[in-house]
Amino acid sequence: MDKAYGDFVALVKELYALDQVASCIGWDEETFMPPGAVMDRAIQKSTLQGVIHEKLTSKKISDLIRSLEKSTKLNPDARVVVREVARRHRRATSIPKELVKEIAKTESLATEAWLKARKAKSFPQFEPMLKKMMGLKAKVAEHVGYEDRPYDALLDEYEPYMKTVEVESLFSRFRDKLVPLVSKILNCSTQLNEKAACGDFPIKMQDEFIRAVVKDMGYDFDHGRMDISAHPFTIGTGRDVRITVRYDEKNLRPATFAAIHEAGHGLYEQGFLEKYYHTPLAESISLGIHESQSRLWENIVARGMPFWKYYYPKLKAVFPAMESVPLAEFHKSINAVQRSYIRVEADEVTYNLHIMLRFEVENAIFEGKLKVHEIPSFWNERFTNYLGLKVPDDAMGCLQDIHWAIGAIGYFPTYSLGTIYATQLYNTVKKAIPDLEDQFAAGNFKGLLGWLRNNIHSQGKRYRATELIKKVTGEGLNEDYFLKYLKQKYGKIYGLSL
Which residues span the domain enclosing 182? Predict the structure, then answer.
């Protein structure tokens, strides 16, 4: 490879190393940072983002990109690296450095305001910081530019190349098929023992059990951590990946499935090829594909009967009180469909209604059809329409997620995209490994992880998300696989013809 590309890669690796530093101080902020350090951390993050922005938008990297884009000597890997860094560079050069720093600073301050507002169950306490963050992100959209809708510029950061109109179209037909199915399950006469996973479960004992599970999945604790945070998340990549959970001493589900979900993200980050570290070939394709990994592990694998045929005896060994709960009853309990307020604790049948609501809020804000102070009433009305529940307070409603505080506008649609991607991928892997679920029942996840490593993780940003799905599954994005999966699984659980 010529000297120009070597110089370019050296700059790229430096940028990616700085990104990892930013991730680590963000992790610290949510886990171990003392509360009085918020202002200093805001300054640190702002300064660091300013440095990253300067390097990414420098004349040197700009000149190298222009030269390399014209080169006919680059191999396919090098072309991917140049293409993706050029894409990031062009987005960055369109956004003023001072705006980048202001967003980074506001993120820390808004997060602190969100935590206090959520504790007080008071949206008005968060409103000024949210209004500021939404205003800053609107400026980003204008600087980045868009062909059709302002929200396109924000969505593109998380699900590259996808447009708002595509999400609207997908969600519209998805909702039309999903709502009747949800209604039929929620209104059926079958009663499940939803308390089968409830009891007294000391955090230390939950932690020991969960760590064993995610280690069996393939999560590498020599290059990873698992800690506690207010909102479960994953950061890091390659040799340093960190996941977090939150515990409920009276219920096994929140921490167990949050840990498996985040470990799914972590496995993706640990699955990139080392030779590509600190380049786009060791970076996720999109957050939708990232979410497909976590939701595949959390829901399709870990809420499945084969998984618990192996782990239920181990769970009972840790918590002997579970001896009185039959496996079939426990399995139904962890898959119970119910109207619920909290997105991260929602069952997989109703979950996507939570996501569609958040997308509708964000889209309405950036279409100028909704003001920030109107969010609670907008949220509460649609939540009641979708899930038949009256929202009791803002903490159980529009204050439950951290995303808006950290400026992650355009992120929410990727959860439903990931759900659809996941079932389409799983349908394919089952054809490739016919005894896959027998392997799960034996506590063996190497077949699934190996398939994901080969077909998804090792690809980095080589393809667009929709291109990858078509390459791996043989067809374009198709929500019907998820709906078929729900009908088969929940028809059996509830004794319904869906």
Answer: 165-494
Do 87 and 212 sit in the same domain of this protein? no
State the CATH number of the domain containing residue 367: 1.10.1370.30
Write down the catalytic residue from 262, 269, 298, 348. 262
- Could you give the CA distance from residue 334 to residue 341 in angstroms, rounded to a whole number? 17
Domain boundary among 120, 145, 173: 120
pTM recorded for the entire structure: 0.90
Residue 337 has pLDDT above 70, yes or no: yes
244 and 176 in a single domain? The answer is yes
**Nearest 5°: CA angle at 98, between 109 and 96?**
130
10 Å CB burial of residue 28 (0-12, 13-18, 19+) is middle
Taking the mean position of all CA atoms in its chain, how far away is CA 127?
Answer: 25
Please check whether residue 155 lies inside any domain of the structure: no
Q: What does the pLDDT look like over 452-497, one tens digit per residue?
A: 999 999 999 999 999 999 999 999 999 999 999 999 999 999 999 9
Number of structural domains, the chain?
2
| Catalytic (active site) residue 127 | no
